[in-house]
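TASK: fixed-backbone design
INPUT:
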């Protein structure tokens, strides 16, 4: 198949492109500038240049392109979001960006649209001890500052599912980790990545496992369906930082009072302390024939640390 991907140059996008190409698919990446073009071409993918928030420019850039599938891996996050303002451009990408990419999908003749979603659409709060399935309410307001992000995630999925003549598929990823291990190690060494003393269980997924699930959705996903893409076990934010510190030899994360994090970084505080959820990946396992290679964060961090050591020593 020919696959058009937006967001194909990031920590998740690159392994998706690599896996698609290895699976015999042709890949065209949408990127905003020459560095992205150079990266995509170095992977043996094609590239077109456009800002997905500029619909006319996007349609011009994809004129004459033909694709069977369009993938949206759009975010504006260069680092972990700490404040609600840090999420707003990503919210726009999930609303306006998705609408523009769907217009491009129709123009290039695509019949399938895979969109990046997140398990946090189930809610930024303690969701109890029962594993959440895709049938749970998604994107519902909870009466606080997180509602704008929930609305954007809901709009993203609804647009994909409602697109006429296109099979829309949503992948609800857990917190992504793995390919950014060097950046997190650096933050731990520079003492810029704190944690709180306690925290809720969070669903995670390694970048490489998320990429494998995305390719599985390209090949086997069913239109109108969402799939949870998470590892088999949840872990607190603090526990994951401790594992990264141990695996890389970085200093342990320093602990700050929860009230201080809530004041200085209200969005980040939710990840460190406020959110707790267990999420089932049974549907993705059964329907996409996918399973995470890294079943736990401990396994994934260890594998990424080994890869990081081998790359820095060579």
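OUTPUT:
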């Amino acid at each position: 198949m020919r696959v058009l991907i937006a967001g194909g140059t990031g920590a998740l996008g690159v392994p998706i492109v690599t896996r698609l190409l290895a699976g015999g698919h042709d890949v065209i990446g949408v990127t905003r500038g020459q560095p992205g073009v150079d990266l995509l071409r170095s992977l043996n993918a094609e590239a077109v240049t456009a800002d997905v928030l500029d619909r006319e420019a996007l349609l011009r850039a994809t004129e004459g392109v033909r694709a069977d599938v369009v993938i949206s891996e759009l975010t504006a996050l260069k680092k972990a979001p700490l404040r609600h303002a840090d999420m707003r451009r990503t919210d726009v990408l999930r609303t306006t960006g998705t609408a523009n990419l769907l217009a491009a999908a129709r123009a290039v003749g695509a019949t399938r649209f895979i969109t990046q979603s997140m398990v946090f659409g189930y809610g930024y709060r303690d969701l109890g001890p029962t594993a959440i399935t895709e049938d749970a309410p998604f994107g519902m307001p909870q009466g606080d500052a997180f509602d704008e992000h929930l609305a954007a995630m809901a709009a993203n999925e609804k647009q994909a599912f409602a697109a006429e003549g296109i099979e829309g598929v949503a992948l609800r990823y857990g917190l992504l980790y793995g390919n950014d291990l060097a950046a997190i190690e650096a933050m731990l060494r520079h003492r810029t990545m704190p944690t709180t003393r306690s925290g809720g269980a969070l669903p995670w997924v390694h970048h490489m496992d998320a990429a494998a699930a995305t390719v599985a959705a390209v090949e086997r996903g069913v239109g109108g369906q969402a799939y949870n893409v998470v590892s088999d076990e949840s872990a607190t934010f603090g526990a994951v930082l401790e594992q990264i510190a141990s695996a890389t030899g970085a200093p342990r994360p320093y602990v700050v009072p929860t009230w201080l994090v809530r004041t200085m970084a209200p969005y980040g505080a939710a990840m460190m302390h406020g959110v707790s959820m267990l999420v089932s990946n049974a549907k993705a396992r059964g329907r996409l024939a996918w399973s995470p290679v890294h079943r736990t964060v401990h396994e994934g961090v260890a594998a990424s640390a080994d890869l990081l050591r081998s790359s820095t020593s060579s």
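COMMENT: The radius of gyration is 19 Å.
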